[in-house]
Amino acid sequence: MKWLSFLSKLALICNICFVFCFLLRYSNLELDLEMNSLLIIIGWFMAIIVSIFYFLVTIIAIARKRHAKAEIPAWLVIVNFGFLIFEFIYLVYNSELLIA
């Protein structure tokens, strides 16, 4: 189940990009256009999809008792779940992102 380990790391990277997008939106940071575009695509669009998919796959793996606990550190699961909650709260309160 190396793919579950890969998916957890991908979710963490996407979630960190989400935080950078959050900071870019509310600050005057100026980055290159290419870096800005990459962060927006990974942060706004991929992060929520990858996080939901990761959360569902992890729940299924734990329910089937496929040693998901031993393969992925508990802190990584908790951090990714915390990011998922933060993303849901942010997207619900800023619904113009969903409409636009």
Please tell me about this protein's structure.
With 100 residues, the chain is mostly helical. The chain has one domain (2-99). Helices cover 83% and strands 0% of the residues. The chain is built from five helices and no strands. Helix 2 crosses helix 4 (74-93).
Topology:
Blueprint: H1 2-25, H2 33-63, H3 68-71, H4 74-93, H5 96-99
Helix pairs in contact: 1-2, 1-4, 2-4
Key words describing this protein structure:
83% helix; mainly alpha; 0% strand; elongated; 100 residues
TL;DR?
This protein has helices spanning 2-25, 33-63, 68-71, 74-93, 96-99. By secondary structure, the protein is mainly alpha-helical.
Oligomer designation? single chain
Note the overall shape: elongated
Q: Which structural class do the helices and strands define? A: mainly alpha
Q: Report the order of strands and helices.
A: HHHHH
Q: What's the number of domains?
A: 1
Please indicate the percent range of residues in DSSP E strands (runs of 2 or more): under 5%
Q: What does the largest sheet look like?
A: none
